């Protein structure tokens, strides 16, 4: 047996390690704050998988899915257990991704996922050394060039492309607020608030379970509110025919259909309206800090790319819709 003294009694790390130990049917921390594991008791594949599950725990579902795909690709490439991987394996994987022609941002995300997993494993003393700490990740310039929709096409898609009031309100709200498609799909009527000063705001639950408040232009709100009917406060704003909330796939189909109807680019997606919100509002004079807050960017450098929450203002007010 190997005994490891730990200084994290009562901490999240201790709970996680005990969870791993229970999964392995082995002891975790004892009363003296020591951790026991049996060497060669189970295959490292099964224990690695349990560690990955704990690393993903608590993250948003979409993030879990993306990270799981990234880690599966990594583990398939190296074909080793985590504790036997060396820096050379990580560097070979990085070169493999570069040779695959991945975009810099995608390459960076995949390598950061691997580094995050190794950091987590080292924090729990699951691996002896965090070899991934020495892995250099190439910088990725964030570019939105060519991702925005022409303003005339936005108007056409909203006014002539949408087949029904729901689709028109959906596309208009996407553009007016710059919210992500996942954020729009989770909207309930209780997320909207008609304020005493006449403004309408929407509370958006974004990445990392962070909330932000964005103003909704009154013309947009009228179209959205017309969909409500007898819906309760906790019901979804945008429903399918069966009464359930629209999902991402359904929204993308609506966007594709509306774009094709007016002869707009077939590359337009729901996220294109988010890019367009940022680009168009900046062109019309919205402060970049306001665009950052409205879109929920974690770093103003992301918002800066559109150039090469204040509760009384939002970049939505600069679009003129």
Can you walk me through this structure?
It is a single chain. By secondary structure, this protein is mainly α. The protein has a domain at 151-318: hpI Integrase, Chain A (Orthogonal Bundle), CATH 1.10.443.10. Helices cover 48% and strands 7% of the residues. The chain has 13 helices and five strands. The chain has helices at residues 12-23, 44-56, 61-78, 87-99, 104-123, 151-161, 165-177, 181-185, 218-225, 248-261, 270-283, 288-295, 300-304, and strands at residues 2-5, 34-37, 192-194, 200-205, 211-216. Helix 7 (165-177) packs antiparallel against helix 9 (218-225).
Helix/strand layout:
Layout: E1 2-5, H1 12-23, E2 34-37, H2 44-56, H3 61-78, H4 87-99, H5 104-123, H6 151-161, H7 165-177, H8 181-185, E3 192-194, E4 200-205, E5 211-216, H9 218-225, H10 248-261, H11 270-283, H12 288-295, H13 300-304
Helix pairs in contact: 3-5, 6-7, 6-10, 7-9, 7-11
């Amino acid at each position: 047996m190997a005994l490891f003294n730990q200084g994290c009694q009562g901490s999240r790390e201790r709970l996680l390690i005990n969870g791993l130990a229970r999964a392995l049917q082995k002891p975790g921390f004892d009363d003296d704050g020591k951790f026991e594991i049996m060497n060669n008791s189970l295959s490292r594949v099964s224990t690695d998988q349990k560690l990955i599950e704990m690393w993903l725990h608590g993250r948003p579902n979409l993030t879990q899915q993306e990270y799981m795909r990234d880690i599966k690709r990594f583990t398939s490439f190296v074909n080793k257990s985590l504790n036997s991987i060396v820096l050379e394996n990580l560097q070979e994987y990085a070169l493999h991704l570069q040779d695959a022609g991945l975009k810099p941002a995608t390459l960076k995300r995949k390598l950061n996922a691997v580094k995050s997993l190794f950091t987590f494993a080292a924090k729990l003393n699951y691996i002896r050394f965090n070899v991934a700490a020495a892995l250099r990740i190439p910088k990725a310039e964030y570019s939105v060039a060519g991702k925005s929709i022409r303003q005339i096409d936005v108007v056409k898609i909203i006014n002539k492309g949408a087949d029904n009031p729901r689709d028109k309100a959906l596309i208009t709200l996407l553009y007016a607020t710059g919210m992500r498609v996942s954020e729009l799909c989770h909207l309930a009527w209780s997320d909207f608030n008609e304020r005493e000063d006449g403004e309408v705001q929407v509370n958006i639950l974004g990445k990392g379970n962070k909330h932000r408040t964005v103003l909704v232009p009154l013309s947009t709100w009228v179209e959205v509110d017309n969909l409500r009917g007898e819906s309760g406060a906790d019901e979804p704003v945008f429903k399918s025919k069966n009464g359930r909330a629209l999902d991402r796939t359904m929204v993308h189909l609506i966007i594709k259909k509306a774009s094709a109807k007016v002869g707009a680019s077939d590359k337009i997606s729901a996220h294109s309206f988010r890019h367009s919100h940022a680009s168009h509002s900046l062109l019309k004079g919205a402060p970049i800090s306001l665009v950052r807050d409205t879109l929920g960017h974690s770093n103003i450098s992301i918002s800066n790319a559109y150039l090469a929450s204040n509760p009384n203002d939002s970049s939505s007010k600069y679009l003129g819709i």
